[in-house]
Amino acid sequence: MKKQLLYILLTCFAALAIQFAAFAQANTDTTKKEEPAKKWYEYISIRGYAQVRYNRLLETNPDLKCEQCDKSWGDGGGFFVRRLRLIIFGQVHKQVYFYIQPDFGSAASSTGLNFGQIRDAYFDIGVDKNNEFRFRIGQSKVPFGFENLQSSQNRLALDRNDALNSALSNERDIGIFFYWAPKKIRERFSMLVKDGYKGSGDYGVFGIGIYNGQVANKPELNKEPHMVARLTYPFVIGSQIIEPSIQGYFGKYVMAADQLSSGVKTNNSLNYLDQRAALSLVLYPRPFGIQAEYNIGQGPEFNNTTDSIDTKNLTGGYITLNYMAKIGKQFIYPFARAQYYQGGKKHEKDARSYTVHEYEFGIEWQPVKNFEFVAMYTISDRRFEDFSKQDNKQSGSLLRLQAQLNF
Prior knowledge:
By secondary structure, the chain is mainly β. It has one domain (2-18, 43-406): Porin (Beta Barrel), CATH 2.40.160.10. The chain is built from four helices and 18 strands. Strands 1-2-3-4-5-6-7-8-10-11-12-13-15-16-17-18 form a 16-stranded antiparallel β-barrel.
């Protein structure tokens, strides 16, 4: 099945590349007077954002942590640069676009902060004049889950949900992805972000791709790429916009040596089945909004009964309720979210085992487009276990604050 999908994708790539070449040739008019060539820097734009957090107010349990969410949770935390992104992008040709996004707020560990690291580095090749058919090549977000695709610059909750985000650390990997969306829908995707409706951005109505499967900034460790596919559509119904989605991926994840505790048991190959399917439903806040997702699947997970990493079932999702109020040029977004996850996190130590029940209540205030402030109260109950830390269940609550600069 994998080989068939890979063959289909590569065949489509070759066919559309031929079409792209023919289109480019047909649109070369040698009779027209040539305009002066643009300087290289005229094709390039720069933007970005920065987030600074404090998570220790009203904290009831300093041992309550969330490694994937925010390394400044709990004991040892303080003021924290969560993200510092500088985005360099440009349409260097009518059908060629590039996007590079380093993050200078990356945390290698709870004690190693503010490292520079590539988040995105890709280019898009449009096949037709409206770029309705395009290929994305490089390191980028994998099209699995609405909230995973939603930029942290736009998202209401301070961190992504555990259930779907556990599929992809940092939401990204290196690969080739094919996207299709009509011009009208591409404009709608753009509007849902630009006009403050907290959209996910343009990842096509249909997307399919192959990628390494070891997550971003990690080398591939087997010869079998992961496969992913997603179908979504933002319907306009009266004054509302509703976007349902279905997506899934499958592959084999390799537990790297630096992820394993001494003494933990594994299978001989270190390869584990890694597959998921998810449903998403978004009612954009006009003015009331709902965002809900749920996924099921299988993946590596630590088993404290046998001190081993096994392939086990996983399940979980979340629902977010929100409201958008516009007062003059100011935006205010009150929101509430509940989430649940039962399963492993393949990219953490020993594919750490989790059970998560969490409730969040917050408000985002955007007085001007260049500044946002979020206050969010979190009530959390988390079991997270690996070989060295078993029977570890922590509960508590905390008030979290974030200031964000957009430029």
